[in-house]
Amino acid sequence: MGDQGPTPPIWLLPEPPERGWGLGRVDIVNAAVRLADHGGAEALTMRAVAKELGASTPMSLYRYVHSKDGLVDLMLDLANGEVRTPEVPGEDWRGELTAVAVDTWAMTKRHPWYARLVHQRPPAGPNASRRTEFVLATFDRLGQDLASALGYARLLDGYVTGQALQWAEERAMWQRNAFVDVVDVQRQARAWFGDVPSEDGPYPLLVRVLESFLAERHDAAGEASADGAVGADGAGSDAEPDASSRAVGVGSPGARPGVDEAGAGRGAEVDREVAGAGRAVEPGRRGSGQQGVGQDDTGRQDTERQASGRPGSGPSDSGRQGSGPSDSGRPGSGRPGSGQAAEAHASADARKVAAAAAEDAQFELGLECLLDGIAARLR
After folding, report:
1. pTM of this prediction?
2. How far apart are CA 294 and CA 300, in angstroms?
3. Crossing angle of the two packed helices 25-39 and 68-80, in degrees rounded to 10
């Protein structure tokens, strides 16, 4: 919001000038996304973006994005461009909505700042509009009036954004406290709580939860184990199989319509395509595999993000170097203990992979419950 009142969406403002020497709107937005990916929303300042680009002054950026609000508009739309939607709704409405939601969840984990900023600006970008239009069209095809369709769309969007915000804030807390993974959280919990109180107290179930968490052992394979092992899917030895014969435990919701086929596969594909390759679309363009809607200042097709470092890495990646004694002997250092250090780093990385899989499974479980409720009302 500007000093003189709300700033209109950037798409209602004049088009930027032709690309200047070494500078353009796409470059500015990509630089801003890189900064926010690594440093969070707090790292996003016009001065920092100008420094990232090597611009002489932050004022030179305003010719292209008008204001910081305009820059946030373009960043949000670029992120939404990573979420794919079918051209038109099909027969499997639940599977398609699941895939869109899982795609959006994966995008928010690549860009943790998204959940912090999305409600600060009007949802007027071409890519956000494309996604919302598809969800509305899905419920319209199911015979819902516009008010009901909008209500369902808000429920789905609220669930995804709420989960994303919780995830981002937890990761920011980990970063502030120099937690690398769950082992550090266990260590802090033991320091705070010491001996777990008796189950005879007022909160016996919470006591059991804390006991279970503190008793977990995290092995080199990234698995947690206490009396029974917990694999990367989060299911323990006491988990019961559901009707699909999959183990059901914390973060392992079992077979779900549309999730296993569309959601999980597409989410993994997006992770590979976007997080791995660092691909981005120009502000005002559509998502991967979509035809464009709207033009930018150059009229070109999708562009490759000229990202440096590790695009899309979450806050939990920061602070790993120098975070523990295992850093004293790195592979190839020739110092004693380098093998143990490599093993410790591999173990920490495996635990992160396992934790991410459990988070994704927990998200899909909540999504399944929400879609179950919507399906019941549509009958």
Report:
1. 0.69
2. 11
3. 80
Residue type, 363: F
pLDDT (tens digit per residue) in 90-149: 999 999 999 999 999 999 999 999 999 999 999 899 999 999 999 999 999 999 999 999
Half-sphere exposure of 320 (CA within 13 A, CB side): 15
Residue 46 and residue 115 share a domain: yes
Domain assignment present for 53: yes
Contact 130, 287 (CB under 8 A): yes
Domain boundaries, position 82 = 10-180+250-378
Using CB atoms within 10 Å of the CB of residue 129, give its burial: 0 to 12 exposed, 13 to 18 middle, 19+ buried.
middle
Per the rule left: phi > 0, alpha: psi between -120 and 50, beta: everything else, 251 is left
Candidates 72, 78, 138; CA nearest to 107 is 78
Residue type, 193: F
Of 165, 261, 224, 216, whose CA–CA distance to 352 is shortest? 224
Would you tell me the crossing angle of helices 93-110 and 126-141 to the nearest 10 degrees?
Answer: 160
Q: Which amino acid is at 221?
A: A
Same-domain check for residues 170 and 275 = yes
Is residue 79 included in any domain, yes or no? Answer: yes
pLDDT digits (tens, 9 = 90+) for 11-64: 899 888 776 666 789 999 999 999 999 999 999 999 999 999 987 788 889 989
Give the position of tokens 């990509």: 30
